[in-house]
Amino acid sequence: MGRAIATVASDHKKHATVAKIEKLIGSSKAIFIGVAGVALLVLLLFFSTSTSFPNMFDVSKMTVLPGKDGGATKDCATVSDQGLNLSHDPADKTFYDDPALSYEIGNPVTNWDDKRREWLKLHPSFATGAEDRVFVVTGSQPSPCKDPIGDHLNLRFFKNKVDYCRIHGYDIFYSNAFLHPKMGSWWVKMPVLRATMLAHPEAEWIFWVDSDAIFTDMDFKLPLKKYKDHNLVVPGYYDKVYEKKSWGGVNAGVFFIRNCQWSMEFLEVWAGMGPQTPNYEKWGEILTSTMSDKTDPESDDQSALVYLLLEEKETFGNKIYIENQYDLSGYWVDIVNSFDSITDNYARIEKGVTELRRRHAEKVSEHYAAVMREAFVNKSGYAGGGKREFITHFTACRPCSGQWGYTEEQCLNGMEKALNFADNQVLRNYGFVRPDLLNASFLYALPFGVSSYNKEK
Ligand SMILES: *[C@@H]1O[C@H](CO)[C@@H](O)[C@H](O)[C@H]1NC(C)=O
Ligand SMILES: *[C@@H]1O[C@H](CO)[C@@H](O)[C@H](O)[C@H]1NC(C)=O
Ligand SMILES: *[C@@H]1O[C@H](CO)[C@@H](O)[C@H](O)[C@H]1NC(C)=O
User: Fold this and answer.
1) Taking the mean position of all CA atoms in its chain, how far away is CA 381?
2) 282-293: pLDDT as tens digits
3) What is the pTM of this model?
4) How many angstroms does the Cα of residue 221 sit away from the middle of ligand 1?
5) Where do runs of H (alpha helix) occur along 200-312?
6) Which residues pair with residue 233 across a beta bridge?
7) What's a Gene Ontology MF term here (predicted)?
């Protein structure tokens, strides 16, 4: 069995990741000089025609071309706020023009690293910063939930992901389709990730987040530098995988994978244990006998991942980082009761640092996140108490099917709290707060200079 896998994954000598490609300094420099040049010109024009120091009114006039109110919006239409040129796609041939290119799992692309690199060269505005670009993918089934509360919760869980992405300037894709008709449930993500890699050559990392996982620290960013020698990062524990051979050694519901040839091949091999293959039943038997604690005879994606870590250490395992330094997939039962005390803790810290109580535009949230990180290190006003968990994962709650793995009340209360806890971090920039994490309808406006987490009005 190991041999079959090794064959599929044989051609991966060139682990050269696109992170390591030349940084296209020439072209990004040209763009920078271009922008700076325009700014200088505007400035010169301004000072040659105006006699007074610029005030807000004059500044706003400067950005609109004379006589045309829509003058400034023309630039907005072609260049996004991240400096990406959304209308530039030269006629030069790329992998997209190859009729043999397939987006489907089962038809791996070859030489993907080269193809991606070529595309980036032709799209210099995307090449700048490509090595840190994260693209979030999540999704749910195409049909309505059996339990209608599931659809309501799916919406709110998705809203949370959209909020997180907007704050950090990430793009997000929600898939509500089975891109392979036989790959439903756990296996649904492989075909989606495979297609996303091709649809987004500008992204270095594709971040899969299950529909029932939510960002509960809106400030936290993936420490990407740490993973420069890895292509897949999954939450879990080394000893649970390598010593206990437990199928719970990792959580396959939240992970990020590098957009490179290695991943192209890895996804094929991983998906090769799925329900679309004639060997599905056999894989179920192999996984059940390999894992020390797997009782369900069906092959599942998570056991399959642990299997690959164990059996294909050279080919795949060494490129997979098992992360346990922060909650990439925090277990909700351990977390939900601490939200109130964590809220108090952050309020205490904010009380000690004036800058943290300053109102600001949502767009510059990362600045305040950095101040908060520093305050934590300094322990300003810190009297012990917890940090927000990055992601809270409602494993086994299954609100869509209504097959609650815990009591419905436990799951619903936990989710309500987590959603409002996360949303409070967003709402503060809109001037409001929810003082009661169990009541989404109860809000009040934040007074000036008051910690957003204060409970008293
Ligand atoms: C964006 O691309 C278009 C089409 O190639 C080009 O005409 C335009 O000048 C570019 N914009 C910038 C700001 O480079
Ligand atoms: C952290 O401590 C340093 C050194 O005392 C200080 O300069 C800085 O302002 C502090 N930052 C915060 C956010 O508390
Ligand atoms: C939630 O807050 C709203 C608005 O303050 C209030 O009318 C409602 O009774 C509260 N619901 C519960 C369950 O406390």
Assistant:
1) 31
2) 999 999 999 999
3) 0.84
4) 31
5) 238-242, 261-271, 280-290, 301-311
6) 256, 321
7) galactosyltransferase activity
CA distance 342 to 420: 13
Q: Closest ligand 1 atom, CA of 35?
A: 13
Nearest 10 degrees: Cα torsion 42, 45, 50, 56? -10
pLDDT at 30: 35
**Which fold is adopted by the domain 95-323?**
Spore Coat Polysaccharide Biosynthesis Protein SpsA; Chain A (3.90.550)
Mean pLDDT of the chain: 85
Q: What percent of the chain has pLDDT over 90?
A: 74
Cα–Cα separations (whole angstroms), residue 188 to 211, 224, 278, 286, 300 = 12, 26, 17, 21, 11
| Tokens 């209504």, residue located | 402
- Contact, 336 vs 414, CB < 8 A? yes
Confidence band of 422 (pLDDT split at 50, 70, 90)? very high
What is the Rg, in whole angstroms, of the alpha carbon atoms belonging to the chain? 25
Q: Rounded to an integer, what distance in angstroms lies between the CA atom of residue 89 and that of residue 124?
A: 10
Which residue's CA is the nearest one to ligand 2's atom 1? 378
Q: Indicate if the pLDDT at residue 452 is higher than 80.
A: no
- CB-based contact 230:405 (threshold 8 Å): no
Q: What contacts 29, CB < 8 A, 6 or more positions away? A: none
Q: Which ligand gives the minimal distance to the CA of 444? A: 3
325 alpha carbon to ligand 2 midpoint, in Å? 24
Q: In which residue ranges of the chain is CATH 3.90.550 found?
A: 95-323
Taking Cα atoms as reference points, which of 3, 446, 18 lies closest to residue 224? 18
Q: Which residue's CA is the closest to the ligand 3 atom numbered 5?
A: 442
* Run of H or E residues at 232: strand 232-235
422: nearest Cα among 177, 148, 163, 73: 163
CA 436 – ligand 3 centroid, Å: 9
Q: Which one, of 149, 146, 147, 174, lies nearest residue 160 by Cα?
A: 174
- Give CA–CA dist 177/140, Å, rounded: 8
Q: What's the gap in Å between 391 CA and the centre of ligand 3?
A: 27
**Residue owning the nearest CA to atom 7 of ligand 1:** 88
Model pLDDT, residue 384: 59
